[in-house]
Design a protein that fits this description.
Structural class: alpha/beta
Number of strands: 5
Distance between the termini: 33 Å
Strand order of the largest sheet: 3-2-1-4-5
Shape: globular
Number of helices: 6
Largest sheet: 5 strands, parallel
CATH topology: Rossmann fold
Order of helices and strands: EHHHEHEHEEH
Length: about 170
């Protein structure tokens, strides 16, 4: 796939984005039967679907959920909760203890995007801020204590992806 894509991209974290403290609290008395039901808030997946419907963006998993069987469980969970967009890959799994997530995203862009040096139609949805300086205008920081991926943050992500060269206007 090296250097061939040009579509908008969503780099997706899971914990703190597709779930939140409120989600876990709502499950305290529920009898969640599997990992998907316990860890993926269907309302957050609906918001991710809204991003896909508005922009046509493909998803790249940047979460720790990209490791091993968790990746397959995540893909199943997204589909189960109504996500219809394409999940086209995941960032590399690095042995580098000093690597921040922004470096892994930058590496993915270099390896997979045509004109990666000028490509800006991507958004990073994450509750951690370990991104590179030049990714700041493409970063939407979620917060697990305030609901993860909220409607407001969904609108912000859509606005970033719809701007020429990904320039944020909100």
């Amino acid at each position: 796939m090296t250097g061939t894509l040009t579509c908008p991209i969503v780099f997706l974290d899971v914990d703190g984005v597709l779930n939140s403290h409120q989600w876990f609290e709502s499950l305290e008395n529920a009898k969640a039967t599997d990992r998907i039901e316990r860890h993926i808030d269907p309302a957050a997946v609906v918001r991710l679907e809204r991003i896909f419907q508005a922009t046509g963006a493909s998803v790249v998993i940047s979460s720790a959920w990209r490791h091993g069987q968790l990746y397959d469980i995540l893909i199943e969970g997204l589909k189960r909760h109504g996500f219809t967009g394409p999940v086209i890959g995941k960032t590399i799994i690095s042995q580098c203890s000093d690597c921040v997530r922004g470096n892994l995203i930058d590496r993915w862009l270099k390896d997979n995007m045509a004109n990666h040096w000028s490509f800006r139609q991507y958004v990073i949805l994450d509750d951690d801020a370990d991104m590179l300086y030049w990714q700041k205008d493409n970063f939407v920081k979620t917060d697990s204590s305030t609901g993860g991926l909220t409607d407001e943050l969904t609108d912000k992500a859509i606005a970033i992806l719809k701007q020429p060269n990904g320039e944020e206007t909100l």
